[in-house]
Structures are given as structure tokens and as C-alpha cells.
Amino acid sequence: MLEIGVCCRLGSMRNSMTARKRKSRIDWAKVDAREIASEEYQAMPEWTDNQIERAELAIGGHVIRAARGTLTRGPGRPRVPAPKKSVHLRLSPDVLSHFRQTGPGWQTRIDDALRKVAKLSARKI
Known about the structure:
The chain has six helices and two strands. It has helices spanning 2-20, 28-33, 38-43, 49-54, 93-100, 106-117, and strands at residues 57-59, 62-65. A hairpin with a 2-residue loop joins strand 1 (57-59) and strand 2.
């Protein structure tokens, strides 16, 4: 009886999760029905040994070997040991204008100027 209750609960969770997903604008039935011509197969590049080494291997949905290397990296930048903190800072209009006129990276230049005044060592990247 307990197994049935758990199974039903999981089933209802799945339904609520799929209900929140956005509907795809792609007609997947049309994509699945399309046959690939032999010329299209010839246009596909062959896999390199490196790509095969990094690829996930699966048979019938059962993963035999997980993907390795660049395929397994998460999105975004690598984490830094001491990340910067986001703060709200009120600056004089002329100071803000001066740094913004220097172009992209103006916030980093403000950070560098404050480090210099506070006599802190340069930030290591």
C-alpha cells in the first residue's frame, strides 16, 4: 500500500511539473516524420576521436559512460575564490560621469581607485 501512495504522489508531481513547462513552437511530429536524404548524410562531418572520447555512451536509455570534458561543464564563468559583492553606492554625478566616460569596465576602474586609496593590494584575477 505504501508503494502505491508513493507512486501516485510522484505521478502527481510530474504532472504539475510538466504543466509549468512552456509549449514548444517546434512541430516535433513534423520533425520526426521527415526523412533525411543520403546527400544530407554526406554533408555531415565525421566525429573526431576527441568527440567520441567526450561523448556520453548509452544503450536503450541506460547510460554506460557519462560525458566527459567540455560537455560536462556548467554554464557561466568559473568561480573565483573571493567574488566581488554587489552593493548600492551613492556617488557624486561628476565622479560617476568621469568613470562612465572611460567606457566599458568603469566599475572595475572605480574598484581599482578605491583599492589604491585604501592601500590594498591589486586584485588577483
